Amino acid sequence: MKSLLPVLSVVGAILLFWVVSVVPMNMHLTADLAQRQDVAVTPDTPVARQDYSGIGLALRNTHLFGMTYTLDRPRLPSPHQVAVEMWETIALRSVTSRRSLVYHGWVTLSATLLGFAIGTGLGILLAVGIVYNRAMDMSVMPWAIASQTIPILALAPMIIVMLGSIGIQGLFPKAVISAYLSFFPVVVGMVKGLRSPDAMQLDLLRTYSASPNQGFWKLRLPASVPYLFASLKIGISASLVGAIVAELPTGARAGFGARMLVGDQYGQPMVTWAALFAAALTAAALVGLFSLIERWTLRRMGMQAT
Amino acid sequence: MAVILANSLNLTFQTNDGPVHALKDVNLEINKGDFVSFIGPSGCGKTTFLRCIAGLETPTGGDISVNGMTPDEARMARAYGYVFQAAGLYPWRTIGGNIKLPLEIMGFSKAEQNERVGRVLELVDLAGFEKKFPWQLSGGMQQRASIARALAFDADILLMDEPFGALDEIVRDHLNEQLLQLWARTEKTIGFVTHSIPEAVYLSTKIVVMSPRPGRITDVIDSPLPKERPLDIRDSAEFIAVAHRVRDGLRAGHVDV
């Protein structure tokens, strides 16, 4: 409960900044519209108004403030407009409808989860290889780092097109891009985790003349669990970003990415913003879910979650 | 009968600052049932020597045998239990689970594991703590659990590297007393590294005094104290005489540096 006040203060500050920003951002559009409805506007020609900034124009037309919040196609929608759009597309539509955000969310989420599973599995395998094999340590890690320096926006269309040309379409190409973004934090975290046992703990196993296999299952793997969870939380949100990015350049017709694109192309900012917020909430829910699993697992393992 | 036999043992570490003589011409014989303490300032090679016995370090010269085998063979044959400076319990295992660790690795049956856990916990006075996690125990109790872990597979030799070094004096006295009782009951051969003179004199049948640069043995004292040792034996004349000799040995080691 103690953390509620600071959290709410930050949320309140962000909302306030948003609400205040709506006025200058939408003022030019509002002024044009008001003029068409025979409301007095200063200055009274669109050309003259171009010389003013949003703030400058707003200060001269304080009577138009209210209108900036109710435009059909605002440059920046107000929070309540986004909320209404989300309510209509999440709660009021059947989940099988193409206009339901739940439907689009599921399309993106399924690619996210598949990609995350592939990325996590690949990341763990690579980490084990890196820890146990010197050649892999020297050769794989630089490539893993290099892979993350390539802008995913440039790479995503190529992957989609290449996979498409060999007949792979739909969910899987998106999952590949998700996996591409999510394997990296898992590799880094797991390498650190598998290497976390200190010299004394390794010596202890030597005094039992334990096999490398036993060392992995009884010491290195359990010791890496806290590191793995830290990585999974980063990986799952990276996966979601990957799935959305994969939907953007390819003209996908379903998914959060498709909704954002549609909103942009057809001048429906509310659609874009609703999809953005739905994606953010999905990411928060996924990370929150992993935090819960982490706490439960670490408590069962006798270790406190940090 | 000699359980551990070292013959002009040498060990040189190659470091960036040139070679370091961790052990130079070390000769020592440890008999079955001995309680041998290694005492000396840091850098005298006492821990290194213990690790040589355990096959965790490889000597660069001379011979060492454990139970008539090389240390590596003895390690493979699980001839000793090793207690480290820190308890080093796995935080994700209960106390019972930690003690089972060597038993699982060595392939004891489930029933045998449970029976042994109960027995060694009794031995170190931790009966009833089987299901607790390490963080629920004090430092002294954790170290006792780590001793139980070393005892669980019934090795004849127990090697202890400053096991009580991080504990306060009161806990330490108590654990020393318990360790003597445990030694009397199990008749193990114990190698014990310490830098506390009273601890070495109180526990040992044989005290090996070492000095640094190069690490070597300067004195080996066979203790005249009886096997039965209450804590107040530390006020007796014999005890003080032995402690004096240890101190003299440590000082002599320092003079010729």
TrEMBL record, chain A:
Gene3D superfamilies, alphabetized: MetI-like
Cellular location(s): Cell membrane
Topology class, membrane: Multi-pass membrane protein
Record flagged with keyword Transmembrane: yes
SUPFAM superfamilies reported for this sequence: MetI-like
Keywords: Cell membrane, Membrane, Transmembrane, Transmembrane helix, Transport
Transmembrane parts of this sequence: 106-131, 143-166, 172-191, 227-250, 270-293
GO cellular component terms attached to this protein's record: plasma membrane
InterPro entries attached to this UniProt entry: MetI-like (IPR000515), MetI-like_sf (IPR035906)
Name of the featured protein: NitT/TauT family transport system permease protein
From TrEMBL, chain B:
Keyword match Zinc-finger: no
Pfam families from the UniProt entry: ABC_tran (PF00005)
InterPro entries for this protein: AAA+_ATPase (IPR003593), ABC_transporter-like_ATP-bd (IPR003439), ABC_transporter-like_CS (IPR017871), ABC_transporter_ATP-bind (IPR050166), P-loop_NTPase (IPR027417)
Residues of the ABC transporter domain: 6-237
Domain of life: Bacteria
GO molecular function terms noted in the UniProt entry: ATP binding; ATP hydrolysis activity
Annotated keywords: ATP-binding, Nucleotide-binding, Transport
PANTHER family to which the protein is assigned, alphabetical: ALIPHATIC SULFONATES IMPORT ATP-BINDING PROTEIN SSUB, TAURINE IMPORT ATP-BINDING PROTEIN-RELATED
Protein name, as recorded: NitT/TauT family transport system ATP-binding protein
Top-level taxonomy: Bacteria, Pseudomonadati, Pseudomonadota, Alphaproteobacteria, Rhodobacterales
